[in-house]
Amino acid sequence: MSNRIFPNIRLRRLRQNSAIRSMLAEPLPGPEKFMWPVFVVEGKGIKQPIKAMPGQFRYSIDTLLEAVAEVVAMGIRSVMVFGVVYAKRKSADAAYAWQPDGLVQEAVTTLKNKFPGLLVFTDVCVCEYTSHGHCGCLHESGYVLNDESLEMLTSMAVSHARAGADGVAPSAMMDGQVHAIREALDHDNLEDTILMSYSTKFASAMYGPFREAADSAPAEGDRSGYQADCRNWRAGVRESHADEAEGADILMVKPALFYLDVISEVRRHTMLPVAAYNVSGEYSMLIASANNGWGDLKKLVRESINSLNRAGTDIFISYWANQYDKFLKD
Ligand SMILES: [Zn+2]
């Protein structure tokens, strides 16, 4: 056999016109593969732009219903609810997080009543509700106590499920949180509630815009004591393996675009669905780039979603979801 592939093999043959290129292209995921993260605030008639994330807003429940009606019309079938509450709700023990008539609980019930076919997931973490802003129970030494935090997370998850959430998504990165939540849900006859774990969640610099959206930066210290170290991918992947063993229904890698190798690795080693959280920094950096004239936003969005698809993503948790028709529809 000749080791000269040219001129016998001409790869350009298969990309010489748009018909053959389109025929061979991997399709972009449809809207049913997307989950739109939404930020709910207290009050009425509020639709407050998030400066660091153009196109995203903080909604009160009434305006959220209008926004969700628009995305449902595009074929989006799932949202993830984050609550952003008044400072007076926050306490050291985060008790507001599992109040039956709390903000997220009310948002979930209202969404499910209005859109029974919509999959409503909730973020389960107490950093929105603790006065110190950490994702669990803070010891006076500044250390976040693991096992003591599990009770907070299970109470929160059960209250969301009781409010009607189809799925809960624990994001605190406490050891044993999936097992503890599964057990608590089952004990409460909520065995059908889906548990999507933020299983491989890195302590990342890409969460900056989200901090403005959710007002959730810790008062002191950072989250590197519980979120996975972005320089240690094997430890990050082990987190997903552990969560699968604990009973997670869906695994997740967060952030997504800087961790395509990790998504592929998790994908290769599990039969569970794998979600990728296309985080705020990934969203905002494409917009910033386009605003500077450094790239076409639609092409940037499509190429980035294509890369997540190729890496093995099943569920795209993405802020592009509410602009699906503008950027992703063919
Ligand atoms: Zn948290």
Task: Write structural notes for this entry.
With 330 residues, this protein is α/β, with parallel strands linked by helices. 37% of the residues lie in helices and 17% in strands. The chain contains eleven helices and 14 strands. The radius of gyration is 21 Å and the shape is globular. Helix 6 links the parallel strand 10 and strand 11 (228-229). The chain has a single domain (29-327), classed as TIM Barrel, CATH 3.20.20. Helix 4 crosses helix 5 (177-187) and helix 8 runs parallel beside helix 10. The strands form two sheets. Strands 1, 2, 3, 4, 5, 8, 9, 10, 11, 12, 13 and 14 form a twelve-stranded mixed beta sheet that branches. It has helices at 18-24, 61-73, 103-114, 146-162, 177-187, 208-214, 233-246, 260-268, 280-291, 297-311, 324-327, and strands at 34-41, 47-49, 57-59, 78-84, 119-124, 137-138, 144-145, 167-170, 194-195, 200-203, 228-229, 251-254, 274-278, 315-318. The structure holds zinc ion. The site of zinc ion has 5 residues, from loops.
